[in-house]
């Protein structure tokens, strides 16, 4: 049974003129236990909308989301979410930020300490626990957000362009760290990116979304053992194929 099953999701937003704009137009896919599946698509195509529906933060117009075979409804808490915008609380230390979800779930102070210490060790933030967000780097902030999402042991982790807005070196390093942490915890990950190289380097499988209204237009299983070499002919081969599909989609959007 798939860990996550998304069935025929449709979503429109009001357009401000009393009408509506259709964003998702029948999105269907499965995510298997332990898999890292990336969603690639043109900017504004509906990736964040899709993640929010899966995480129960937004309601679809029609369609269903199943986790471990059971349908989930808005408000469920089975998904850990790393947001597109940096979202650490500036008034809380690294440790207090990570602890936040456990406080909300009313976990006892003793259990919170054990869980937070463990995840801080795994993500490699030891020694920085008592720093505030303005006292850590952008890369460390991303690791803290990852820890905050993982400490509550979600069934699935969704990541919305978590590694954007970082310099190339830090981004490459964090891609490796993300994979290491994913393996250490054994998580199942849905990973949104608009960077093809990143998706090819990290993913077991990639889905490409069309322009709005978004549909899934291509699927690639990346059959290259990890760790991968970004410059290998295999990686570059996938990159070229995917860029072709995305490029054609972009051209359509621009009326070319
Ligand atoms: N709350 C909202 N009300 C109305 N329209 C919205 C709302 N949220 C998003 N949209 C519109 O829906 C479309 C999809 O937005 P979404 O944020 O899901 O795209 P995205 O693929 O995540 O984009 P990006 O790659 O730039 O992050 C966009 O055209 C956006 O303007
Ligand atoms: Mg987005």
Walk me through this protein's architecture:
The chain is an alpha/beta fold. It has helices spanning 47-54, 94-104, 109-123, 138-150, 168-185, 196-202, 233-253, and strands at 4-14, 20-31, 36-40, 62-67, 70-71, 79-82, 156-160, 189-193, 205-209, 216-221. It has a 6-stranded mixed β-sheet with strand order 6-7-8-3-9-10, with helices on both faces. It has a 4-stranded antiparallel β-sheet with strand order 2-1-4-5, with helices on one face. α2 crosses α3 (109-123). The radius of gyration is 19 Å and the shape is globular. It binds adenosine-5'-triphosphate and magnesium ion (MG). Magnesium ion is lined by residues 47-48, 84, 160.
How do the helices and strands follow one another from N- to C-terminus? EEEHEEEHHHEHEHEEH
Q: Which descriptor suits the 3D outline? A: globular
The radius of gyration over CA amounts to: 19 Å
Largest pleated sheet: 6 strands, mixed
The order of strands across the largest sheet is: 6-7-8-3-9-10
How many DSSP H or I helices?
A: 7
Mean model confidence by pLDDT: 95
User: Share of helix among residues?
Assistant: 25-40%
Which architecture of the domain at 1-78 and 187-256 would the CATH scheme give at its second level? 3-Layer(aba) Sandwich
CATH topology group of the domain at 1-78 and 187-256: Rossmann fold
- Stretches where pLDDT falls below 50 for ≥5 residues? none
Name of the CATH class of the domain at 1-78 and 187-256: Alpha Beta
Structural class: alpha/beta
Which distinct ligands sit in these coordinates? adenosine-5'-triphosphate, magnesium ion
Q: Kindly report how far apart the N and C termini lie.
A: 42 Å
What is the CATH superfamily of the domain at 1-78 and 187-256?
P-loop containing nucleotide triphosphate hydrolases
Q: What amount of the residues lies in strands?
A: 15-25%
Please give the number of β-strands: 10
């Amino acid at each position: 049974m798939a860990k996550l099953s998304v069935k025929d999701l449709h979503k429109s937003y009001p357009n401000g003129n009393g009408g509506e704009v259709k964003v998702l137009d029948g999105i269907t896919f499965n995510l298997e236990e332990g898999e890292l599946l990336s969603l690639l698509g043109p900017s504004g195509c509906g990736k964040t909308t899709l993640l929010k529906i899966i995480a129960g933060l937004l309601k679809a117009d029609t369609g269903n989301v199943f986790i471990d075979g059971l349908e989930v409804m808005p408000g469920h808490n089975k998904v850990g979410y790393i947001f597109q915008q940096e979202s650490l609380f500036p008034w809380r230390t690294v440790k207090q930020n990570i602890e936040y979800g456990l406080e909300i779930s009313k976990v006892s102070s003793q259990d919170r300490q054990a869980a937070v210490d463990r995840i801080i060790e795994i993500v490699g933030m030891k020694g920085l626990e008592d720093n505030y967000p303005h006292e850590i780097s952008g890369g460390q902030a991303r690791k803290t957000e990852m820890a905050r999402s993982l400490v509550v042991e979600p069934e699935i982790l969704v990541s919305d362009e978590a590694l954007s807005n970082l310099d190339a070196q830090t981004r490459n390093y964090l891609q490796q760290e993300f994979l290491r942490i994913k393996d250490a915890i054994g998580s199942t990950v849905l990973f949104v990116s608009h960077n093809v190289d990143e998706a090819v380097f990290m993913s077991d499988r990639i889905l490409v979304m069309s322009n709005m209204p978004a549909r899934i237009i291509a699927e690639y299983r990346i059959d290259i053992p990890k760790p991968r070499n970004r410059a290998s002919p295999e990686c570059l081969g996938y990159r070229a194929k995917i860029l072709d599909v995305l490029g054609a989609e972009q051209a359509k959007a621009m009326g070319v």
